[in-house]
Fold each of these.
Amino acid sequence: MRVPILFYHKINHPHPEAKIRGLYVTPENFYRQMRYLKWRDYTPISLYELVKGINLKEKLSSKSIVLTFDDGYEDNYTYAFPILKKFSFTATIFLVTRDIGGLSGWADNEETVKEQLLSWDKIKEMADYGIDFQAHTHSHPSLTELDEQRIKEEIVNSKDIIQKQLGKNVDFLCYPYGHFNPQIKRILKEVGYLGALSTKRGMVKEKDDPYCLKRIGIKDKGGILTFIRYIEFKYR
């Protein structure tokens, strides 16, 4: 089993003041990427299907892929959502629950500009279509810098808020900044999470740890040829 989990942040043209432009993929390039996946017969699956395959050692299709978006920016609704619907694709979006409907409050001048996040109305519309929403903590801290009580608060509050709003289970966490350690993985298991996603690069394989799932970050640089190389060759 070799399943790519792709991860995006913003589907938009870079903000004029943005210092890290790698967080953006333009709507035009995102469309080309999804069109390529459709042409190549890739089928987006859920994290539930992926982790079940790992836990039960089930063989998944070689054309399985997981699409994920970190942070929950409003442009995921404005630009990504119509494209996903056009190709009948599903995806998972990880929400920072403290800032729903507001600006990305964890941003600072060294990282990125503050940008608009999804509102609950838009989240619910997307969820009704089939987009999955999971946790990205409550306030987007580096979990490795927190004590155990704060770690629990961040991951439990995020889980509980989304579950209450959407009436569905929340079972996966995306680590902010990709930071985690054995203590954080232990706490996730204790409070009922089924898995977690990192920023470590690579394909997911059958013997991988569900609490340290690798992903492939997609950026605008290099265009469709770089995207194809990542999916078909580099991490195979």
Amino acid sequence: MYWFKLRVWVAALMLIAYWSACKPDSKEAGTGLKYFNVKEYFTANAARLQKLNKPVLKTVTHNGVTETKTVKIENWGQELDLFIGADINKPAWKNSYTVIDNNDGLLYKAKDPELKVREILIKKEGQKIKWILIFTHTKNILYQTTEKLSYYPDSLYIIEKGQTVKLMGSNHYIIKGVIAN
């Protein structure tokens, strides 16, 4: 029952976020991407994890109440949807992020406080990605949402979400998935 209620809440939150998006998702023909391709990276990881079909020890915490169980993820694209949705390569945003690139990582930081994706931090070892952190923030007259998305390839993902909705109060979610070896 708890998982069903959580899925309903997550679906409602995703619909609200979808409806509040105010920038069109258009593509410029013939141009390369300016920033790391978050969407492609997580879409490829979702497809790879779908083929591996490994069990996941999934812990869901909602306002301090925690439930843990081992599950098989039926749709990794849906499971990693918040990560996939953190795409910053929209043509309208091509100069909207400050990029700090050093030998072991990348940092993308939003210049405009209205952009949903506030920061993306990518830790690399050579060409291999060790982990990715994504920070988002959305605020409008109905609600305010913050997310911290953490991804460690082949081992762990964590979604931390805080939300305050007018007339409904505040909610805090933590979803942690440990991928079996």
Amino acid sequence: MPFSRFPLLAGLALLLATGAPAEAVPIAASPKAKARASLIFPLTVVRKNDMDFGYLAVTTAGTAVINPNTGALTTTGGVVSVGGTPMPATFIGAARSSAVVNIKVPNQPLTITRVGGTETMTVRDFTLQGSDKRTLARLEAFEFNVGATLVVGANQVEGLYTGTFDIIIQYP
């Protein structure tokens, strides 16, 4: 077997020695592209994006509000947006047959807790993008955003605060 590789090596050496034109070197795109798909089974809802208030600086008590229609973040009092990517939570659902679906956002405040600590903040006044009743065709997907108001205390401890909330979809 080693004998059969010799002509290939000799041919490669001859090609290099003759000064043949170099081939273009492929270069990978940066950053790499991502492929993504969301599978949604009828009569289900999946989270596409979490709600994110971004990075906030605090001098006195105030609020940060995410608008579910525009994605805009506004602040009041001594709360100032200093970066990050604020965004409403986004959900996707699908209906099995033609139906009217009812979307329910939380009507009670949510307590979020500092990671690694016991300090808390409140998220309240959840708002829905568009109508809470959607008329869907058979096997039609629907997407919606949820915004809310974050209540920040004057002496809020620095850190990452997290919590979870439920969105309820009623399929009649």
Amino acid sequence: MIEVDVALNMAAEAGLDLVEVAPLARPPVVRIMDYGKYKFEQAKQARQAKKKQHIIQLKEVKYRPGIEKHDFDTKTNHARSFIGDGNKVKVTLMFRGRQIAHPEIGMAVVERVAQTLADVAKVETPARLEGKALTMILTPK
């Protein structure tokens, strides 16, 4: 255990700072270090960690009940690429006018999407009818 005055003099002689590491300890723990360099290293580590993280976004692909095969394949391939990038995909099937009278047709399209993407995605939220839209959320496996 060294007195505060002696520790400050040692730090000044070395051209460094006296930094309190554990203020709640009895006696408080201090370290002689270059505080500016320490803060720079901390900021550098934080930047590296931020660079490595991936923020998952929710992408949306919209379908209609009477969708043709080519349109279906194109939209499903877009959804596949979104899932490949690590994003979630919200599959939305919009009903217009009297189409809402046959929700089973829309359910079949949404289930077909889930079956087609079953190799790369799993269903997070099953298909449910919300107003005039049928929605389902897929996540990467």
